[in-house]
Amino acid sequence: MHRRDRRHDSPARRRTALALSAALLAAAPLLTACGGEAHPGAAAVVGGERIDVSTLQAQVKAARDAQSASPQSAQLIAATGDLGRQKLNGLIFDRILGKVAADQGVTASRAELQQTRQAFVRENGGEEGLEAVLLQQQGVAPAQVDDVVRRNVLMTKIIEKQGITETPEGQQKLQDLFTAASKSLDIDVNPRYGAWDDTRVQLDTDADTAPWLLKVSKDPAAAGPEQLPG
């Protein structure tokens, strides 16, 4: 069977996967520390596995520390004021993504991760450029860049295996795939952080936003590396 050389994936193909996952981490208010304790010490339980509050706080702290070290710290922090919600969304979503990938027999090899990261580095003018873009746009600390790369590789391979296209039908197919996985994991979020919406595949928010899987530009180039998810 012929194996396609993934090193020649086009930027547009990579950007499609990025656009599909980026909106998940975007619009939601900052988490508050009030409410009941359904799971003491846990921010959420996904598929029976805890996401500890300490894990969430560590991710937020790493990003805030990196932002604070920048000359544009005030602007960076203001631009990612919803960082706590974004990070919890991301932690939950990565477990859903892992479930979908396992069900589809999709994995991310070390070579694929390296190739994809190198492509992002080239497209952003070097490692420092990539780190700066991710920190600015999505509050991603340098140590968290590999998580973004892995998410992109798995999303791209799932999209390819399912033959997903940037059409309403294709995006609905992907929406259904992730909704089913989300429901199967019986996601339970500590009430003080909100509630998980399986259909939208994100934490509930009062904002009137479209489901993240449907937020795809008709022009893949419009979802370039500057919109990498966190």
Automatic annotation (TrEMBL):
It comes from Streptomyces hydrogenans. The keyword Lipoprotein applies. This is Lipoprotein. It comes from the Bacteria. InterPro entries: TAT_signal, Trigger_fact/SurA_dom_sf. Keywords: Lipoprotein, Signal. Residues 1-33 form the signal peptide.
